[in-house]
Amino acid sequence: MLPTARPSFSQRHPFIFGFLLILAAVALFMGASAALRHLTGGTGPFAGPRVGVVRVEGMIADISKTTAWMDTLRDDPSVRGVLLRVDSPGGGVAASQELLDAVRRMARVKPVVVSMGTVAASGGYYISLGATRVIANPATLTGSIGVKMELPNVQGLMDKLGLARQTLVSGDMKDAGSPFRAMTPQEREYLQALVMDMYDQFVTEVANSRNLPVEKVRAVADGRALTGRQAHELGLVDALGGMDMALTDLQQLCGIAERPVLVEQPKPSSWLRDALETVLDLQPASRVAAPGFLYVY
């Protein structure tokens, strides 16, 4: 008697096999759609002039992907200009400075117009200074020119728990800001000097970029938030309007008559993740660790 052939996987597990086929089909469809959207801007093959879109949203911390995308747009001769959408309360000082440099590199090659969303404050305002033109909504929260350093102190909790920490340092200021003890007057003076140096850099940057007297900037650079309308009256932004107005201004700067194709940053592709997000409507969570020195609202 001949041995009986073992049933195939699809025969033994028809429902699992069918689900895997659906996932594969969804992944192929999404990959092809994403490639087509990136190539054409979603309006048809090679249709119309192209402008890039850069979105800075949430805390400014890890900017590597954003700056890489900006470099891609800058070096692409088919991209005529860039719309920079800012909806951020700010973030790390150094990260904000690096992002400002990236915006400036872009603006030296092609026009960059900032469209401020709900909030573009502190570091969110700082990075906008490198653009060709800055547009805010009348109720956008912006400004908040200043620096903040947050230092927790858990000495009281440690005392209640009967815990102590011993630290050896090479110099008096090496342990400045330790959360396990009170700050000395000398340490406070030292750390305050660091904060004020970063603050002076911020004020000087605003004054130079907006062609304003330093004294005028310093008068409102006490950390206060401003509405877009107030910022416009002070000369901190160029005009009031939404994203459509910013796009219209960008078209004029680029010499584009018809509505351009918007080239968005492609999302990192993982066929399994994309398929599961589509089929199961799952969204990944994101976590950002806030730095110590902040240009933040």
Structural class: alpha/beta
Annotation field: number of helices: 11
Q: End-to-end span in angstroms?
A: 81 Å
Say what oligomer this is.
Answer: single chain
Low-pLDDT regions: 39-45, 281-291
**Share of residues in strands:** 15-25%
Number of strands: 11
Comma- or semicolon-separated keywords:
flat; 11 strands; 297 residues; alpha/beta; 44% helix
Provide structural commentary:
It is a single chain. About 6% of the residues have low confidence. The protein is flat. Helix 2 crosses helix 11. The chain is built from eleven helices and eleven strands. The strands form two sheets. Strands 1, 2, 4, 5, 6, 8, 9 and 10 form an eight-stranded mixed sheet that branches. The protein has a three-stranded antiparallel sheet with strand order 3-11-7. With 297 residues, it is of the alpha/beta class. The longest helix is centred in the N-terminal third of the chain and has 27 residues. The protein starts with 8 loop residues before the first helix and ends with a strand. Helix 5 links the parallel strand 4 and strand 5.
